[in-house]
Amino acid sequence: MSKSDTLPGTATGFLSDLQAHPVFVDLREGLFRFIALLVAAIFVYRGVNNVIVDPGRLNVLLLTISETLTFIWLLLARRPIVRDWSPFTVFISLTAGFGSGLVSLQEGTAIIPLYVAAPLQFLALWLVIWGKMSLGRSFAILPANRGVVTGGAYSYVRHPIYAGYLAGHILFLLSSFSLYNFTVYAIITLFQVHRILREERILALTEEYRHYLGRVRYRLCPGIF
Question: What is the domain extent for residue 82?
């Protein structure tokens, strides 16, 4: 790994040299992945226990499957070419990526019935799966360039995985509403948008992605955003 692992405009000198040192990079990458995997594993454990106690909670089951996929893709993710390690972005990305671990799995108020929400949540999960299959090993929590992907689900929106997460979160919230979960998901969504913008900034350093931006206009929902 070289100094390409940092973004233009970051600190230079001794600190920059230390951050770019291969040993430091490996330790930092390993620690970050360990924390990410630990948080995902804890949420999966909570979800499995909840479903064992109440097998009828299909919305919890689908949410748990989604987080399990995140755990698997983190294990398989390749090393980044460029990654944004700025402290603020790390905080935002961790909160957006694993804030769902703070979601209460207790049964809340059903704004829409489970038999309506669950099938739609299942479709949102398939959008996540399709996006991750299209992305392959380029999956990341922090904004990073692990290679530009423009095919599959990425032919329709720039961030299909985030779109699937957002749809799944909304449907889970509507089927088990609480003010606490609404607050958690609102914060996650705001931070997710910030992460999307930072990720596009990194990827736009490549000519291939700049061409892609011209072909696929919308980030999450065609015609809206």
Answer: 12-215
